[in-house]
């Protein structure tokens, strides 16, 4: 970790806190961290979940790997170091959204336990909900909605998670959902029911 420059003076304790923002919005803020292989269904499920929560008056923000890499993290590649920096930046953004009372839904492969643990530490364990979208590799590869597995098999993409780069499944996620043999709506409903009781202010 780089040493903080001497000309930076923070004032985190002087601004309105998370509880003030949650009271204004009438909700409790969490970072919903969806992890799973490419093609597992993370983004599809997240889109359905976000629309359902929005319809009920919850303020949300969906963050997706492709969109973030097209903007905030467009200068990063897929080396181990760049993957770690990608998640660090995303976690810092999550922390900001959470402090504003927003429910943040994340769709990132985030393949290693170390990377996900780092995100959890930045965001805060009490605000972090790890959701494992447990879809087998063969199902993800059969779907191959972006054509990425075919490119990786041809050697056009290096360090592709699940093939020539590892994916470490969570040991004890907040929730594990399956997509095999279920519609995206059914899987999103599983996640909705788990989340709704946590985000609704009493």
Question: How is this fold's topology laid out?
Answer:
Elements lengths: L17 H8 L5 E5 L6 H14 L4 E5 H6 L9 H20 L3 E5 L5 H11 L4 E6 L3 H7 L4 H6 L21 E3 L6 H16 L3
Parallel strand pairs: 1-3, 1-4, 2-3, 4-5
Question: Could you explain how this protein is built, in words?
Answer:
The protein is α/β, with parallel strands linked by helices and 202 residues long. The protein has one domain (18-199): 3-Layer(aba) Sandwich (Rossmann fold). The chain has helices at 18-25, 42-55, 65-70, 80-99, 113-123, 137-143, 148-153, 184-199, and strands at residues 31-35, 60-64, 103-107, 128-133, 175-177. Strands 2-3-1-4-5 form a 5-stranded parallel β-sheet, sandwiched between helices. It starts with 17 loop residues before the first helix and ends with a helix. The mean pLDDT is 90.
CATH superfamily: P-loop containing nucleotide triphosphate hydrolases
Largest sheet: spatial strand order: 2-3-1-4-5
Note poorly predicted spans.
none
- Main sheet properties: 5 strands, parallel
Q: If you consult CATH, what is the topology?
A: Rossmann fold
**CATH classification class:** Alpha Beta
Number of structural units classed as domains: 1
β-strand amount: 5-15%
Inertia-based shape: globular
The total of beta strands comes to: 5
The CATH architecture assignment turns out to be: 3-Layer(aba) Sandwich
Overall pLDDT level: 90
The helix count comes to 8
Helicity level, as a percent range?
A: 40-55%
Distance between the termini: 40 Å
């Amino acid at each position: 970790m780089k040493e903080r420059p001497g000309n930076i003076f923070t004032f985190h304790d002087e601004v309105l806190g998370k509880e003030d923002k949650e009271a204004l919005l009438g909700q409790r803020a969490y970072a919903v961290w969806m992890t799973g292989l490419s093609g597992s269904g993370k983004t599809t499920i997240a889109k359905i979940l976000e629309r359902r929560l929005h319809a009920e008056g919850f303020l949300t923000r969906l963050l997706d790997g492709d969109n973030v890499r097209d903007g905030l993290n467009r200068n990063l590649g897929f080396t181990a170091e760049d993957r770690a920096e990608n998640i660090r930046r995303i976690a810092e953004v999550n922390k900001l959204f959470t402090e504003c009372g927003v429910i943040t839904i994340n769709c990132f492969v985030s393949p290693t336990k170390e990377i996900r643990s780092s995100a959890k530490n930045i965001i805060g364990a009490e605000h972090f909900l790890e959701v494992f979208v447990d879809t087998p590799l063969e199902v993800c590869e059969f779907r191959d909605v972006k054509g990425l597995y075919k490119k990786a098999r041809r050697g056009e993409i290096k360090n592709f998670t699940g093939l020539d780069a590892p994916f470490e499944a969570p040991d004890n996620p907040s929730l594990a959902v399956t997509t095999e043999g279920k519609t995206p709506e059914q899987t999103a409903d599983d996640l909705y029911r788990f989340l709704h009781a946590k985000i609704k202010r009493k």
